[in-house]
């Protein structure tokens, strides 16, 4: 992922900001004794990006990937509208308990810019509903230049979004975070609709670390910088998630990207190991291949 990439990550203050005051209130309102649901994965499964991740002789990349991780942030659906048959094929290649997190197609978010999108939204939702129990949460990523002046357009689409498909929202334009009244209206809408306010942790856009949860679900898209600070950043996330869990967090969806994706499985594996220790979980750890070399091994 190139979004938020900087020339020198060592110059960035990666400290996680304090939570928005409303976050603790949201979590407290939904606090239960239910088990903590945790899904950690990468954004892609194709061999060309995850170099060294697949053993020689791997015949099907998704089948192998799904044996290593319990989820995938499905960006393939952003570039091409999925159909029911394709979704069923993906679903049948994965084991019980695996979940997909498909991104809404760019026709909806980037080309039509949420104008007259009832038909493509229904087409998308009909397709991903074929994931059935393996559907985690769909997410809508808005264009960098989609600004709060079009809030009412976004509001209408979200209010009409099919209720049977869980949804997270990622806004990117700086105005959503810089203007307090705008941020309040946006997060209030998501809270009323029980939709997740996606957090993005990337070097060049620290404003997207809003730390404002709008439901008892934390959906985090973490972008490593191919830099030694990546490990400390993940460790800091474990500390913050422990705090949220005590306050009432029910579900964690955490997806690891990098500017150069080759080390994403290694970072995700480290994060899973730390979560297992922190929460006494038994999430499977991905197998490290002999060819999977990290800059941290050098």
TrEMBL record:
InterPro entries: DUF72 (IPR002763), UPF0759_sf (IPR036520). It holds the Pfam family DUF72. It comes from the Bacteria. This is Uncharacterized protein YecE (DUF72 family). It comes from Taibaiella chishuiensis.
């Amino acid at each position: 992922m190139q979004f938020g990439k900087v020339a020198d990550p060592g110059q960035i203050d990666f400290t996680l900001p304090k939570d928005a005051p409303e976050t603790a209130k949201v979590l407290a309102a939904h606090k239960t004794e239910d088990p903590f649901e945790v899904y950690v994965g990468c954004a892609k499964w194709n061999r060309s990006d995850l170099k060294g991740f697949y053993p020689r002789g791997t015949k099907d990349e998704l089948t192998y990937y799904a044996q290593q991780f319990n989820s995938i942030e499905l960006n393939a659906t952003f570039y091409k509208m999925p159909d029911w048959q394709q979704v069923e094929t993906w679903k049948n290649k994965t084991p019980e308990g695996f979940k997909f997190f498909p991104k809404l197609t760019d026709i909806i978010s980037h080309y039509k810019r949420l104008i007259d999108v009832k038909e493509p939204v229904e087409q998308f939702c009909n397709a991903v509903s074929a994931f059935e129990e393996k559907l985690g949460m769909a997410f809508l990523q808005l264009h960098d230049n989609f600004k709060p002046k079009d809030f009412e357009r976004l509001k209408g689409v979200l209010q009409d979004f099919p209720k049977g498909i869980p949804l997270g929202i990622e806004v990117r334009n700086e105005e959503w975070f810089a203007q307090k009244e705008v941020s309040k209206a946006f997060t209030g809408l998501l809270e009323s609709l029980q939709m997740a306010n996606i957090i993005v942790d990337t070097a060049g856009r620290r404003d997207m670390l809003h730390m404002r949860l709008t439901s008892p679900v934390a959906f985090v898209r973490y972008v490593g910088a191919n830099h030694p600070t990546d490990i400390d950043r993940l460790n800091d996330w474990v500390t913050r998630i422990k705090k949220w869990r005590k306050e009432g967090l029910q579900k964690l969806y955490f997806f690891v990207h990098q500017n150069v994706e080759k080390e994403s499985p290694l970072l995700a594996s480290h994060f899973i190991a730390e979560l297992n220790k922190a929460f006494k979980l038994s999430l499977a750890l991905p197998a490290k291949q002999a060819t999977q070399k990290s800059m941290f091994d050098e």
